[in-house]
């Protein structure tokens, strides 16, 4: 069995231009974005292991927030997820797999989670 390392950032609320209906296309919508990133796992993490042996969690957060291009309208939230995956793959060759879950908060009527999950592997 192989060792594994997963970094996680969950439940970020982000305003994103997305949607296909006319009432959705002119204003940003609130999305809840969660990321799980599989990394190459070092053999060991000693107490003095530097951050460079892993990845800064803020890189994950930024991929889902500030790395989204301002003013760009994503027709589908799947496009938002793909952009996040590509950003993380380009940032770090140690990223093996990215799982992005996006919930569209504006369409929930009774607290339900309506959205999608995209998983991409490094090619």
Number of helices: 2
Radius of gyration: 16 Å
- Strand percentage: 25-35%
Shape: elongated
* Estimated helix fraction: 10-25%
Average pLDDT: 94
Number of strands: 4
End-to-end C-alpha gap: 22 Å
The major sheet is characterized as: 4 strands, antiparallel
> From the helix content, strand content and strand pairing, which structural class follows?
alpha+beta
Report strand order across the widest sheet: 1-2-3-4
Task: Write up this protein.
The chain is an alpha+beta fold. Helix content is 18%, strand content 33%. The protein contains two helices and four strands; from the N terminus they run ββααββ. Strands 1-2-3-4 form a four-stranded antiparallel beta sheet, with helices on one face. The protein is elongated, with a radius of gyration of 16 Å. The two termini are 22 Å apart. The model has no long low-confidence stretch (mean pLDDT 94).
